[in-house]
Amino acid sequence: MGKIKVTETKLKDVKIIEPAVFGDHRGFFTESYSEKDFKEAGIDFDFIQDNHSLSTQAGVLRGLHFQKGKAAQTKLIRVVTGAVLDVIVDMRKGSPTYGKWEGYILSEQNHRQLLVPKGYAHGFVTLTDNVNFLYKCDNYYNAEADGGISFLSPELNIDWPIDIDKAITSEKDAKQPAFAEFEAENPFIYGEI
After folding, report:
1. What's the pLDDT at 12?
2. Of 18, 46, 13, 52, which Cα lies nearest the Cα of 135?
3. What is the per-residue pLDDT for 2?
4. Please, which residues have CB within 8 angstroms of residue 123's CB and are 6 or more apart in sequence?
5. In whole angstroms, what is the distance from residue 135 CA to residue 78 CA?
6. What is the structure's pLDDT at 25?
7. In Å, how far are 81, 95, 102, 159 from 22, measured between CA atoms?
8. Alpha-carbon span 41 to 174, nearest angstrom
9. How far is CA 84 from the centre of its chain?
10. Helices (H) then strands (E): counts for the chain
11. 182: helix, coil or strand?
């Protein structure tokens, strides 16, 4: 069937993937993942876990999360209903884009996927109601390796497209340390992950 289009981003090692979408009067068909097509495009990860979250309202903000140490994960992210602004932060000390963030619109309309390498903090805010958010991981979730930074980190100055005071967040996410507070214990080193 179709091949994928891969676009490099401003952030080091992050890619936007656009699978071929075949539509007609009935709807569409797409191969959301083909190991063969991804490998031919130079994306060769052994994805071993699929995750799925549902956010029922616009304004849900999840993140910024990561897994530390040997539990670090590469993620392949997509949205199958609704739309999000997906935000990632390069946490890898020594990276040319260390401490930088970017946001990407992922939606059921654009069918885009985002490849997030190990060493990036990840989060998103829902732009619509009823967002089904799916992602593949190349490592299993490990509660002991769970980490995060605040989505309000002043040094990152993330431009969230909502009234941040009205964001719907978890208690855990509301209490994460700022990026600068986390830097002293940051285990991510560019080229070593």
Report:
1. 95
2. 52
3. 58
4. 61, 62, 63, 64, 65, 86, 87, 88, 151, 173
5. 6
6. 95
7. 18, 38, 29, 34
8. 38
9. 10
10. 3, 13
11. helix
One-letter amino acid of 13: D
Instruction: State the pLDDT at residue 193.
Output: 82
In angstroms, the Cα distances linking 104 to 29, 78, 96, 142, 151 are: 23, 11, 20, 26, 15
Per-10-residue mean pLDDT of the chain, 193 residues long, equals: 87 96 93 93 96 98 96 98 98 97 98 98 98 98 96 97 96 96 91 86
Q: Say what the pLDDT of residue 147 is.
A: 95
Name the residue type at position 77: I
Amino acid at 126: T
Of the candidates 94, 140, 143, which has an alpha carbon nearest to the alpha carbon of residue 119? 94
| Domain architecture of the chain: domains with CATH | 46-185 (2.60.120.10)
Task: Catalogue the active-site residues.
Answer: 65, 135
Query: 99: which 2 tokens?
Result: 């401490």
